Amino acid sequence: MINLYGLEMQKLITLMEQEGQKPFRATQIYTWIYGHKVQNFDEMTDISKSFRETLKEKYCLTLPKIHTKQMSDDGTIKLLLNLDDNCQVECVLMRYHYGNAACISSQVGCNMGCTFCSSGILGKQRNLTAAEMMGQVLIFNRLLKEENKGQRVTHVTIMGTG
Ligand code: SF4
Predict the structure, then answer these.
(1) Is residue 110 in contact with ligand 1, taking CB distance under 6 Å?
(2) What does 90-131 look like in DSSP terms, one character per residue?
(3) Which of 70, 94, 107, 116 is the most interior residue, by most CB within 10 Å?
(4) How far is CA 71 from CA 4, 10, 143, 148, in A?
(5) 2-60 maps to which CATH number?
(6) Where do the structural domains in the chain lie, given as residue ranges?
(7) Interval between CA 120 and ligand 1 midpoint (Å)
(8) What is the rounded CA–CA span in Å between residue 17 and residue 42?
(9) Which ligand 1 atom minimizes the distance to the CA of 161?
(10) Exposure class string for 111-136: b at 16+ Cβ within 10 A, else e
(11) C-alpha torsion 151→95→4→36, nearest 10
């Protein structure tokens, strides 16, 4: 299955054309994913039911899973996430007067070997996929949406590993 998270628009257009769809189908899906933040093809109500079934058979919208969530008094949120292969990464959301800054991981493990840091013990294991990196931002957007203050991630910083 192809995870649609993290695909560039041109790649999504190409996929839709391979499915016999018009390019605008990619725009519709992008809008549902990133505008309406749905994670279920059945909610994409301007797409025909038959093509939604095709999407469900061949594609997915899979986010990393939250293993641990810590929140401090100033609203900072730190997450430990489980990836599909059971690797784990951390990411942090910080609140500033200018917006909500997400600090996301791009790798599992680290080769720098700083003796005080557990991320370096096993060395770098792999890079994250675009979907896994985008997933960290989308998870924070979902948590912000649940706070019901109409906020979203406004800034993203990419680190190696957390
Ligand atoms: S994650 Fe940072 S502190 Fe940890 S080993 Fe790598 S460079 Fe050092």
Answers:
(1) yes
(2) EEEEEEETTEEEEEEE-EES-SS--TT-GGGSS---EEPPHH
(3) 107
(4) 29, 37, 12, 17
(5) 1.10.150.530
(6) 2-60, 65-159
(7) 6
(8) 21
(9) 1
(10) eeeeeeeebbeeeeeeebeebbbbbb
(11) 0
* Model confidence pLDDT, tens digit, residues 19-68: 999 999 999 999 999 988 899 999 999 999 999 999 999 999 999 999 99
The whole-model pTM stands at 0.88
pLDDT digits (tens, 9 = 90+) for 43-52: 999 999 999 9
Taking only the tens place, the pLDDT of each residue in 124-161 is 999 999 999 999 999 999 999 889 778 999 999 999 88
Best of 91, 110, 111 for a ligand 1 pocket test (most atoms within 8 Å of beta carbon): 110
120 CB near ligand 1 (under 6 Å): yes
Radius of gyration of the chain (CA): 17
End-to-end CA distance of the chain: 28
3-state secondary structure of 89: strand
Nearest CA to ligand 1 atom 7: 112
Ligand 1 pocket check for 112: Cβ under 6 Å = yes
Residues 3 and 61: their CA atoms lie apart, in Å, by 5
